[in-house]
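Input record, target 12 of the design panel.
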């Protein structure tokens, strides 16, 4: 989990950088920042390495700009992550250079008056910070997957933040737009001192909140204030919030609950969901990876998918709408722009298929469970 070009461009010190080409390479990882001053030809291979974010004024070829393509290709062959040019000795980047960057998926950008030394310091600081987040993510994985007792979990939690208190609640936040923000503007010390920690996780952020007291209503108000303070607004983020736990040693539970609540919010197009409010999905979401659930899923869903494929029908779509409308034929017909009799015919057909494939005895109940599992199986965390 190294710093990427896309993440670096979020840094304030790089706000004056303009991307010209190579957008598909924004996921390239930065391992080092290097300055291209004098090196040309074979010296490129000797002085640069894979993962370098290269900064240059092109002083090395100021009197022979026509050599830019050859030297840029050498940098690409080395495996640099990006090239940023301050156009001191060139008025405009040639079109063939832009096309080369685009073809090779190497971000090519220009920048203005930002001091090269400040860029180097800013990016190197971000690299170190990102590595710190990587260690925190590994600690979260340990809490979730090592099957530790409460003392073991509490010990790891205290390493994450020594200011953590016992009562805890977790929110998982992911940006609605494709561009995610990994750095938090609020100083880390301020966050930690109130018993909180923000950790990049699964393309989003875990916000671990701890409290001295366990007043549920007061804590819910505090959570909204904290999320706003940290910049995780419901306008820009989809948020899943766990229930409140009274032991730090149980931290794996609110972490998982926040992920389940987020998945529910994402599926049902909500800005925020609380685990306590997602109904039967509290039972379904934690067991989706169970092999028996997979067997049930295949036994119930696959026959409908096969029937739709073979007959060019929409039985599965009808089943989903029927359950989401609480078995209301009229509402289902209106949603699917069909006559009520058409929906009744389809439901009868679904019933028949399910009886034949799985000896279904309680049609509506089993159809409802099947639809919930299908929706959750096909949502992405």
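The sequence produced for target 12 reads:
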């Amino acid at each position: 989990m190294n710093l990427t070009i896309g993440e670096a461009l979020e840094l304030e010190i790089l706000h004056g950088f303009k991307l010209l080409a190579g957008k598909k390479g924004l996921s390239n990882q930065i391992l080092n920042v290097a300055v291209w001053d004098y090196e040309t030809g074979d010296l490129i291979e000797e002085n640069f390495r894979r993962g370098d974010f290269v900064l240059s004024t092109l002083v090395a070829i100021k009197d022979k700009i026509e050599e830019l393509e050859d030297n840029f290709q050498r940098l690409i062959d080395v495996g640099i992550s990006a090239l940023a040019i301050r156009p001191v000795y060139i008025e405009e980047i040639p079109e063939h250079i832009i096309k080369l960057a685009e073809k090779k998926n190497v971000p090519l950008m220009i920048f203005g008056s930002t001091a090269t030394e400040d860029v180097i310091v800013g990016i190197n600081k971000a690299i170190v910070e990102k590595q710190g987040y990587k260690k925190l993510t590994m600690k979260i994985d340990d809490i979730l997957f090592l099957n530790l007792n409460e003392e073991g979990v509490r010990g790891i939690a205290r390493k994450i933040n020594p200011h953590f208190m016992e009562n805890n609640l977790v929110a998982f936040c992911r940006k609605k737009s494709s561009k995610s923000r990994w750095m938090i503007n609020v100083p880390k010390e301020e966050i930690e001192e109130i018993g909180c920690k923000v950790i990049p996780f699964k393309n989003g952020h875990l916000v671990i909140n701890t409290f001295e007291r366990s007043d549920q209503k007061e804590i819910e108000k505090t959570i909204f204030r904290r999320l706003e303070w940290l910049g995780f607004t419901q306008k820009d983020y989809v948020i899943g919030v766990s229930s409140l736990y009274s032991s730090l040693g149980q931290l794996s539970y609110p972490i998982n609950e926040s992920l389940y609540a987020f998945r529910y919010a994402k599926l049902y197009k909500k800005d925020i969901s609380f685990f306590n409010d997602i109904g039967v999905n509290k039972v379904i979401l934690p067991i989706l990876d169970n092999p028996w659930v997979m067997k049930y899923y295949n036994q119930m869903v696959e026959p409908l998918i096969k029937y739709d494929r073979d007959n060019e029908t929409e039985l599965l779509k009808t089943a989903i709408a029927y359950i989401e409308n609480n078995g209301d034929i009229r509402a289902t017909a209106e949603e699917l722009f069909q006559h009520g009799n058409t929906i009744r015919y389809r439901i009868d057909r679904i019933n028949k298929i399910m009886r034949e494939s799985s000896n279904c005895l309680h049609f509506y109940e089993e159809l409802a469970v099947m639809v919930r599992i299908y929706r959750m199986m096909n949502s992405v965390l």
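The chain has three domains: 5-121, 146-282, 288-377.
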